[in-house]
UniProtKB/TrEMBL annotation:
Protein name in the entry: RING-type domain-containing protein
SMART domains on file: FANCL_C
SUPFAM superfamilies in the record: RING/U-box
Pfam families, sorted: FANCL_C, FANCL_d3
Cellular component terms (Gene Ontology): Fanconi anaemia nuclear complex
GO-annotated molecular function: ubiquitin protein ligase activity
Domain of life per record: Eukaryota
Domain FANCL C-terminal, chain residue ranges per copy: 316-376
Lineage: Eukaryota, Metazoa, Ecdysozoa, Arthropoda, Hexapoda
C-alpha cells in the first residue's frame, strides 16, 4: 500500500532520503504534537527478510527520560509496516508527555489546502510563479497585470481553527490602506480574486508612479516599492520636491512640499500658488503635476559629474558625510546663502544638543557646524 499521501497529509515536514548504505534510509524533519514541534531523525534499516526496523537517532523538546525510553522501546519491539505507523506511535507517546488526552490532527485541513491550491493554479492564467511551501503553511504567488507589472503576494494558511478563514494575505506590496481590505477567506481563489481586483483598481496609481520614476530624478525612496505613494524629486542643486498622492483617489490634487533654501523655493512656490486652483486633470496626471510646478519637464541630474575631489558630494549630510541615515535623506538646509549645507535631522539635532543649544517650543536652535550662522531643527523623540 502506498503510504506517501498519508505521510504528506499527516506529517508534511518529514523528509525521507537515501544514504550511502543501500540498506539504510534517513528520515528527518519535524512532527507537531499539541502546539509543539519536535525535530526528529530516524534510520529505517531493511533486513534480508525485507522487514524494516526503525532506530531513533535524535529528537528535541523531550523533557522526560521515561518518554524517550518508551519511544526507543517501542521502536525496538513493535512491528511497523511503514514510517507513518512509526510516527503515529511516537505521537501517542509524546502526547502522554504533554498531559493532553486528545491529539490535534490537521489532516482534514491539509487535504483542503492541497485541494484549494490545485484548483487555484488551474484557475488563474496570469500567474508567473506559484509555490506551496513544504510545510503547507505559506503560498507564494507572483502575478502580472495588463502592463505587465509583476506583483508578489504571500498567503498564509491559518491552522489555529479560530476562524473559518483558512487563507489570509500575510505580505503584499500594496499601499497601506489597501491591506485592511484584503481580509481572510476560506477560499484561496476568492481571496486572490479580491487581490486581483485591488490591482485593477490601483492601475492609474501604478501608471503615475512609473511615469515619475522614468521622467524624473528620484532621490527618495532609493528603491521605490509599489506601496510607496510619494517621490522626492530633484529640481536642482539644494532643492527638491516631495510629491505625495492618494493611491485610492489618484485624480485628487497631490500634496507637494519643497525642500531647500527660501531663495530657491520661492519661484516654485509662486507657480504652485498660482496654478493650484486650476487642477482639473482627469487623465494626464503627470502633466498636471508639471503644470502645477510651472515646468515643461523635470530636470535631470547629471550623474556623470566627477566630484571625487569634494569632501562632501551634493546631497550628503555635512556631519556624517553619508547620503542616507536610517534610510532617510538629509532634510535640513542651512538658510545662509553662502553655506546651504545639508544635514540629517538626527545628525544636526545631536550636534546642537552637544553644544547645549537653545530649545524653543518644538525646535532646537544653535550654530551651523559649517558657517556658524543660526540653524534649527525639530526636536527628536
Amino acid at each position: 500500500m502506498d503510504y506517501s499521501v498519508d505521510l504528506i497529509l499527516k506529517y508534511p515536514l518529514i523528509n525521507i532520503k537515501s544514504t550511502e548504505k543501500s540498506d539504510i534510509v534517513r528520515i528527518h524533519g519535524k512532527i507537531y504534537v499539541h502546539h509543539k514541534y519536535f525535530a526528529v531523525t530516524l534510520h529505517q534499516i531493511t533486513h534480508l527478510n525485507g522487514a524494516p526496523k526503525y532506530k531513533l537517532k535524535s529528537i528535541t523538546n523531550v523533557k522526560s527520560k521515561s518518554t524517550l525510553s518508551k519511544i526507543k522501546n517501542a521502536l525496538s519491539t513493535d512491528v511497523f509496516r511503514n514510517i507513518v505507523e512509526v510516527l503515529d506511535q511516537m505521537n501517542e507517546i509524546l502526547l502522554q508527555d504533554t498531559d493532553v488526552k486528545h491529539l490535534e490532527v490537521h489532516t482534514d485541513i491539509y487535504r483542503k489546502v492541497i485541494h484549494e491550491y490545485s484548483e487555484f493554479v488551474k484557475f488563474f492564467l496570469n500567474i508567473s510563479t506559484c509555490e506551496l511551501k513544504e510545510d503547507l503553511t505559506t503560498i507564494c504567488v507572483a502575478v502580472t497585470d495588463s502592463k505587465p507589472r509583476l506583483h508578489s503576494v504571500e498567503i498564509a494558511v491559518d491552522y489555529s481553527k479560530k476562524s473559518s478563514d483558512l487563507f489570509r494575505i500575510s505580505a503584499a506590496d500594496l499601499p497601506e490602506k489597501d491591506q485592511a481590505i484584503l481580509k481572510g477567506n476560506e477560499s484561496l481563489i476568492a481571496l486572490f480574486d479580491t487581490f486581483i481586483g485591488q490591482l485593477e483598481l490601483l492601475q492609474p496609481y501604478f501608471e503615475l508612479m512609473d511615469t515619475l520614476d522614468e521622467h524624473a530624478t528620484i532621490l527618495d525612496p532609493d528603491k521605490p516599492r509599489k506601496s510607496d505613494a510619494y517621490r522626492r524629486i530633484w529640481l536642482g542643486e539644494n532643492i527638491s520636491t516631495i510629491i505625495t498622492v492618494d493611491p485610492f483617489n489618484i485624480y485628487e490634487r497631490p500634496d507637494i512640499k519643497f525642500l531647500g533654501p527660501d531663495r530657491l523655493i520661492e519661484s516654485f512656490s509662486s507657480s504652485l500658488n498660482e496654478n493650484i486652483g486650476k487642477w482639473v486633470y482627469q487623465e494626464n496626471i503627470f502633466q498636471g503635476i508639471l503644470d502645477l510646478l510651472g515646468l515643461q519637464e523635470f530636470p535631470k541630474k547629471d550623474t556623470a559629474t566627477n566630484q571625487v575631489n569634494l569632501l562632501v558630494e551634493f546631497g550628503e549630510c555635512s556631519i556624517c558625510f553619508c547620503l542616507r541615515l536610517n534610510n532617510k535623506l538629509p532634510e535640513i538646509i542651512c538658510t545662509n546663502q553662502s553655506c546651504e549645507k545639508l544635514y540629517h535631522n538626527q545628525c544636526l539635532y545631536d550636534w546642537l544638543v552637544s553644544l547645549h543649544a537653545k530649545r524653543v517650543f518644538n525646535n532646537i536652535s544653535g550654530n551651523c557646524p559649517n558657517c556658524e550662522k543660526t540653524i534649527s531643527c525639530p526636536l527628536m523623540n
